[in-house]
Amino acid sequence: MHKNVTLVDHPLVVHKLTLMRDKHTPSAVFRQLLREISLLLAYEVLRDLPTTATTIETPLAEMEAPILKGKKLVFTSILRAGNGLLDGMLDLVPSARVGHVGLYRDPETLAAVEYYLKMPENVGARRIIVVDPMLATGNSASAAVSRLKEIGAVDIKFVCLLSAPEGIKAFASSHPDVQIFTAAIDEQLNDHGYIVPGLGDAGDRMYGTK
Ligand code: URA
């Protein structure tokens, strides 16, 4: 496995992912499963968040106890499917800031075209967690991360549900400094840039648009 990849293959994650892959799973269930998996992925990607000590009083004694340190982190969703991962992560870290990057895939070239960008201030001082369920060609993820670096982001991690070897290779060569967290690495892309076996179009599965 590529050194930039952390595979989150906890039994709960792989079980929920199997249910999501099944084409008979309805949108409402698909969204709920994605929300649940995103909690588990967030737990892994945030494992190395820095902490500091603070003094508190328990009912029994005073103690030095750890709390999170530094500026609030930023969950950054690549629209629109990224929002499915975002919701669960916000359940886990409600005080996080939220950014959005709007990209669509040109159906001919599969290149990523930006139509929206909204980020909180001071991205250079924050941990940025970029989320998109599918790392397929890697074009959208690479373009999103390039834009975030352009506006000053330096501490970036990428979280997806499913990835293709082609996407991992492309993303890791554009952004060797960005660790990828994924629940599974599938076989390959098909000619339309879809992950096989995959789960289909994540946005359509979430929102019932097909
Ligand atoms: N985007 C999706 O939603 N699904 C894929 O398989 C590839 C890209």
CATH class: Alpha Beta
* CATH A-level architecture: 3-Layer(aba) Sandwich
Strand order in the largest sheet: 1-11-9-7-4-5-6
Low-confidence stretches: none
**Helix share of residues?**
25-40%
**Radius of gyration from the alpha-carbon trace, in angstroms:** 18 Å
What best-fitting shape do the alpha-carbon axes yield? globular
Number of helices: 6
What percentage of amino acids are in beta strands?
Answer: 25-35%
Overall mean pLDDT:
95
What is the terminal-to-terminal distance? 34 Å
Main pleated-sheet profile = 7 strands, mixed
Q: Which structural class is indicated by helix and strand composition? A: alpha/beta
For the secondary structure, the number of strands is 14
Heteromolecules bound: uracil
SSE arrangement, N to C: EHHEEEHEEEEHEEHEEEEH
CATH topology: Rossmann fold
